[in-house]
């Protein structure tokens, strides 16, 4: 297997991790909003910020894979 | 987008509600987004075809095409007309041991494979994959090593060319100045401070940055000091993200350029460091409320954290915007990889979908960069509360 292939697998793993993380954040935010609709705006902005944090870690992986690939 | 003032106004007013409260998204926003995306998609198609024509005799290489679109370039290629590329030439400025040399990028005749040699100031310049090289003494053509790096040419000491990214940055500065100076004049003219014209497009966004970003993150007493910077980066990143999506500009991918995002993140880092109070530095070097071995253990982690924050800001913006461009171009190149028209509807539909998401991402990334900067400023200026 070439280094490019391994890099592609790494990028895929990073995407899986980010998908799971953001999925959990989104699901919990939805649940919280359904429970407390009056907190809608606050929950949404904090969910966006948290998603950005999770995504950043995945993007580190993608950038490293990109440099290798 | 800026032509129809009615649409712009409703778009702006709905943007806040639309993106951050999707439940309340109104039909108007949807309509203007869909219309602008259709416009984008049509251009994207013409794009991909034109790349195909460029390399008729050789095999189509999606990787090279995508990298060429995402990277910076010396000229601004607009479109092909009858097989001839049409572009805006931009100045190439280099500084070598023979002094300053300046010439137009049109002298390369759209060549980026190092074939056209430009003689200026006693030096020979070639353009190898959108990087200017100076040929060594006596060399008449570029030779490459196994990794396709030139062996008999070197980079100039300083390359301060006005590339298409620099050009687009200046265009965005002019556009921002026009928008905000016009808005300011509107307020000066009106007696009751009621916004009109372009000011009613700008005001909800400024109020949004103040009430949703600066106030909750930094705090009621100190947010005013940071408002100019937060507003500047919000609008600067947003408008450059939007410019990156306009296909006729050939993906002037300024906010997907790591040097650009590095500069913005570095400014945030400098402001955070200089506005840090005693409480902030104490939390980094001598964490209160934990035993002494833990204090020593936490210190290096906190110091690393100080630098990781701006680095993650830099990589997040760069990777998000670049990834968006790469996905759209990759979906388009599927048509040419499979060499059939049957796949075209699928790939056009998918890139339409991705472009819709990218339009939203332009605003979200500007918002994320601004709110995280505000969060870091808030952490730096927070008073001890016990």
Protein architecture, described:
The complex is a heterodimer of chains A (69) and B (386). Chain A has 69 residues and is mainly α. Chain A has one domain: F1F0 ATP synthase subunit C (F1FO ATP Synthase). Chain A is built from 2 helices and no strands. In chain A, 12% of the residues are buried. Chain B is an alpha+beta fold and 386 residues long. In chain B, strands 5-6-7-8 form a 4-stranded antiparallel sheet, with no helix packed on it. In chain B, helix 1 crosses helix 2. The N and C termini of chain B lie far apart (51 Å). The N terminus of chain B is likely disordered. Chains A and B meet through helix 2 of A and helix 9 and helix 10 of B. Chain A: It is found in: Cell membrane; Membrane. Chain A: InterPro entries: ATP_synth_csu_bac/chlpt, ATP_synth_F0_csu, ATP_synth_F0_csu_DDCD_BS, ATP_synth_F0_csu_sf, ATPase_proteolipid_c-like_dom, F/V-ATP_Csub_sf. Chain A: This is ATP synthase subunit c. Chain A: Its main location: membrane.
Short description:
Chain A: Pfam families: ATP-synt_C. The complex is a heterodimer of chains A (69) and B (386). By secondary structure, chain A is mainly α.
Which descriptors would you attach to this protein?
heterodimer, A: 69 residues, mainly alpha, F1FO ATP Synthase, 2 helices, B: 386 residues, alpha+beta, four-stranded antiparallel sheet, three-stranded antiparallel sheet, globular, disordered N terminus, ATP_synth_F0_csu (chain A), CF(0) (chain A), transmembrane helix (chain A), hydrogen ion transport (chain A), transport (chain A)
């Amino acid at each position: 297997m070439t280094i490019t292939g391994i890099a592609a697998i790494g990028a895929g793993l990073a995407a899986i991790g980010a998908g799971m993380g953001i999925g959990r954040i989104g699901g919990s935010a939805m649940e919280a909003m359904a429970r407390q609709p009056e907190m809608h705006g606050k929950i949404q902005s904090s969910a966006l910020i948290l998603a950005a944090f999770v995504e950043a870690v995945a993007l580190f992986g993608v950038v490293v894979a990109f440099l290798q690939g | 987008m800026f032509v129809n003032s009615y649409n712009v106004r409703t778009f702006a007013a709905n943007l806040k509600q639309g993106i951050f409260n999707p439940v309340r998204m109104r039909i108007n926003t949807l309509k203007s987004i869909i219309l602008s995306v259709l416009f984008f998609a049509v251009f994207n198609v013409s794009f991909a075809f034109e790349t195909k024509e460029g390399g008729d005799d050789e095999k189509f290489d999606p990787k090279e095409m995508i990298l060429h679109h995402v990277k910076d370039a010396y000229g601004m290629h607009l479109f092909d007309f009858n097989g001839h590329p049409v572009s805006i030439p931009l100045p190439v400025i280099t500084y070598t041991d023979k002094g300053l040399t300046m010439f137009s990028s049109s002298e390369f005749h759209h060549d980026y494979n190092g074939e056209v040699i430009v003689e200026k100031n006693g030096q020979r310049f070639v353009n190898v994959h959108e990087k200017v090289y100076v040929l060594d003494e006596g060399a008449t053509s570029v030779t490459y090593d196994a990794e396709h790096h030139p062996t008999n040419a070197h980079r100039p000491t300083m390359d301060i060319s006005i590339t298409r990214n620099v050009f687009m940055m200046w265009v965005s500065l002019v556009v921002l100045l026009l928008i905000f100076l016009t808005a300011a004049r509107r307020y000066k003219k009106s007696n009751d401070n009621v916004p009109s014209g372009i000011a009613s497009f700008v005001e909800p966004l400024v109020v949004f940055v103040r009430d949703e970003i600066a106030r909750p993150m930094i705090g009621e007493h100190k947010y005013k000091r940071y408002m100019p910077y937060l507003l500047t980066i919000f609008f600067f990143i947003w408008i450059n993200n939007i410019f990156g999506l306009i296909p006729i500009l050939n993906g002037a991918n300024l906010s997907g350029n790591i040097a650009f995002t590095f500069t913005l993140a570095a400014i945030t880092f400098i402001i955070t460091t200089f506005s840090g109070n005693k409480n902030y530095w104490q939390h980094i070097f001598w964490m209160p409320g934990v035993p002494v071995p833990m204090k020593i253990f936490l210190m290096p982690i906190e110091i690393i954290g100080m630098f990781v924050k701006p680095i993650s800001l830099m990589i997040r913006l760069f990777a998000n915007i670049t990834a968006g461009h790469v996905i759209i171009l990759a979906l388009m190149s599927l048509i040419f990889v499979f060499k059939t028209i049957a796949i075209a509807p699928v790939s056009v539909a998918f890139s339409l979908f991705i472009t819709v998401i990218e339009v939203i991402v332009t605003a979200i990334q500007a918002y994320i960069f601004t709110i995280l900067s505000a969060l870091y400023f808030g952490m730096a200026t927070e008073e001890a509360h016990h």
